[in-house]
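Same chain as my last thread, 191 residues:
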Amino acid sequence: ELASNGIISEQQYQTKLVEPFPGATGNESPYDTSLALSPDQQHLYIAISQRSSVPYGGIISHFSRDPATGNLTYADQLDYTQPNLEGFREFQSLRVSPDGKFLYAAANTYSTSGPSVPGTIYIFSISAGGSLTLTERYQLDDPSETLLQIYWPSAIEFSKNGKLAYVTDQVNNALLQFSRNETTGSLSFLG
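reply #2:
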């Protein structure tokens, strides 16, 4: 909480960022990588990467938020052990679309050992209660053009009207521009 004198004081300390999930061995070492607040200020999403004996896994925790007090309540999560979410990787950036209907999660898949797989932008629809449903995995991969590949998407941002999306790629040192379908949330590469 920011006081009138400019000093920040603790409002709430949240320690539960992730629920135990099937297959957890106790050797996991979760760390948060990004967060995004919905435009209505009622939902907070936290990207968490999971280090364990298996390859890095991605988790997105959802908290409901009281706009008046800012207090958070754990709601639910998506993680790499759930059906259709295999391949969730290390998330670098989360962003909620300006209309509050979709969450975009940039995940790297760049490998220093072995062939690289294109990075992925996961697109989730957001329910009225704030829960997420995966609607699309977007990959841009044209091997003939280096700049038409996303290896390590590191940030996502939207134009004010939500019709354009911008993605930076840490490996290619590139800025990519996409149009965004406001109904489906899908992205189309522009350059």
